[in-house]
Amino acid sequence: MEVTDRLILRKTEKEDFERFFDINKDPETNLYNPGGPMSFEKAENTFKRCRNTGISTISEHGPL
Length: 64
What we know:
By secondary structure, the protein is of the alpha+beta class. It has helices spanning 17-25, 40-53, and strands spanning 2-3, 8-11, 56-59.
């Protein structure tokens, strides 16, 4: 885990999926995303890929 003045960066955990999906399925959050909101299946595959490649979760206020 890395901590800066404004962010905490940590490895993504399985428990983060629900919040990841909530953000990525929301049409308003994805208003300017050419792919639009994610289906459950796409979010699940993307999340697994992020976890397997070690992409971190970024949070301003601690773990998600």
